[in-house]
Amino acid sequence: MTLGQRLIANEWSAIAVAIVIGVVGLAATSPAFLTEFNLYVMMRSFCVVLVVAFAQMLTLAVGQLNLSIGALGGLVAIAIGGMMEVLGFPIAVALPIGLAIGALGGLINGLLTVRTGINGFIITLATASAFTGINLGITESIPFYNLPSAFVAFGTARLSAFPMLLIPPVIVALLLALFLARTVPGRQLLAVGGNPHAAQLSGVHMNGIVVLAHTLSGLLAAVGAILAVAQLGSAQPTIGQDWLIMSFAAPIIGGAALTGGHVSVAATALAVVLIVLIQNGMVLAQVDPYWVQFLLGALILAAVGLNRLRAVRAGEA
Amino acid sequence: MTTRLSGALCRAFSIAALLAGAATVAQASDNKIALIPGGPHPYFAPWEQAAADAQKDFGIAAVDFKVPSEWKLNLQTELVESLVTQGYTAFGIFPGDAVGINSTVEELEGAGIPAAALAGCAQDPTKMQFCLGTDVYNSAYLGTKALIEAMGGKGKIVHLAGLLVDPNTKLRMDAVEKAVGETNGAVSIVQHITDTDAQEAADQKINALLGAQKDQIDGLISTAYIPSVVAAKSLRNLGDKRIKLVGIDDDPIVLDAIKDGFAAGTMAQNPYGQGYVGAYVLDLLAGGGCTVKADAPWIQTPQTAHFIDSGTLLISAANIASYKDDLKKITSDIQSSFKDKYLDCK
């Protein structure tokens, strides 16, 4: 197999090519694109989207959908904000509780899905409404502003162009790649999504794995929420409202199968980079505001198409 | 015994309070009034206090602040219908959908229940009795003028706007362009950045703008709540006091930015006044004693022929300590003159 063939066989190769084209194009047309601050802004924009994409990717891996990611993220965001501002909890206490709330929300999604036999699509649609309701009931749409300065400072801290906020998502990506590639539950997760019948015959505890996927998805939504609060400097009840589309777009551009069994951490991460690059390019190119949504959709569609073309060429289809 | 005594004392105090209330309140009413925003948003938070104050000050049976769970027309109309069945007799509504709300308002009118548009208008033809809100065109125009002044009358500006589907956004864009046009080319608009009404979208777009073009921009005019907050925070993070910012509304982050020199000002709106005066007038209309005058001095806007400006003013470092008193005075003036100016009462 030649180098070119090996490259095209990689599911992230088409996305990488699109990123390179985008970077070169933007650098050529906008001198400000490669400035330290703009690179920092873009890398900072990866953080939340990256973790949220991973959260959805895990449920896609078992052939399920999680529509409650944003709502659960919003609930965790205001929970940690409330704990730190109103209850005066230190960061070291509030954040683990926030993560636990996220995992608990995911656990509830998983248990309801396997115990009722109702598709996760419906279950998470319902729990999304419930999580949002709790969020609004607690906050009455008023954000929590007075967060510990160390926490807020972390959201804006940077080393040259590298935002400190990117450290947790990078750690999450590495752990997730390790989990899916090298651990028994990780492999079982993909097996359940790829061929549930075969997985069951192999003795995999199907329900347990589905619950695990939802729980981890909730946990990652909580990580995303914590990063969003640090990034924004306040715990806004609206956090998570825009997550849903991106949570699907990145894994799908990254080649995840909606039927389950196949996901890629690297390709999903590159898809996030591509999406943020497109969004950044829209601002740099001063696109007419009435056409921004159209162009964003068209470019994302083009990215999916490019990856599909690569898959066909590589003989995956 | 102690309980009985305290109970009797409580009753005595209650009767005394009621009598005292009756002496100060012009006309107690049995009306139940609901103030309904388009959905959850911090802008409407003062409506809750306005409702409580109006209920107390005007002796209305109930004035309640009811929030739809999401910014969706069907959720807002379902809430209105549910409140009608619970006996509410008048509604102050922020139309989340300026046209879509009209069929519900027509149904209310048919049932003899008056409704008024508060904070934002419904599109004519409408059965809304009137629209009490910020003159968004004027507010954006005055804000841009203030920004241009802070920039020394020249430079490049970016307009940060809210939802593109909101017809008011187009009005605000036109107002910004008008103010810029009056500089005869000394000030130019680099771009309008829209759909920044969600915190995360605003953070991404505004920081991308600053990352790429901060050296080319001299001023930011924000005509929506969320981008004002995000822009104030981003300029603070950047440590940039060269770029002038004029925002809208009085979020604590924006006010702190004004105090610390990261924002030149913000255009105050009067949400409390909208809720307070709205409840007062709806009580008069729901009682059946008053109707709106056809020939009142209404302001004509692109949306409605029955507009009343609830007041706007620029908050700057000079008046940051006193602007709330100024808004209270505006509210008091609108309330005290409303009956004579806009209503025919028996």
From TrEMBL, chain A:
InterPro entries listed in its UniProt record: ABC_transp_permease (IPR001851)
Highest rank taxon of the organism: Bacteria
Example of a GO cellular component annotation carried by this entry: plasma membrane
Keyword Cell membrane: yes
Transmembrane segments annotated in the record for this chain: 12-34, 41-61, 67-84, 91-112, 118-138, 159-181, 209-233, 245-278, 290-309
Entry membrane topology: Multi-pass membrane protein
Molecular functions per Gene Ontology: transmembrane transporter activity
A Pfam entry, by short name: BPD_transp_2
Keywords (A to Z) from UniProt: Cell membrane, Membrane, Transmembrane, Transmembrane helix
Subcellular location: Cell membrane
PANTHER family: ABC TRANSPORTER PERMEASE PROTEIN YPHD-RELATED-RELATED (PTHR32196)
Protein name: Ribose transport system permease protein
Species: Prosthecomicrobium pneumaticum
Taxonomic placement: Bacteria, Pseudomonadati, Pseudomonadota, Alphaproteobacteria, Hyphomicrobiales
From TrEMBL, chain B:
Keyword Iron: no
Keyword Signal: yes
Location(s) in or outside the cell: Cell envelope
One Gene Ontology molecular-function label: carbohydrate binding
Signal peptide: 1-28
Residues of the Periplasmic binding protein domain: 36-288
Keyword terms of this UniProt record: Signal
Coiled-coil annotated residue ranges, if any: none
Pfam family, one: Peripla_BP_4
Superkingdom of the source species: Bacteria
GO cellular component assignments: cell envelope
Family: Belongs to the bacterial solute-binding protein 2 family.
Name this protein carries in UniProt: Ribose transport system substrate-binding protein
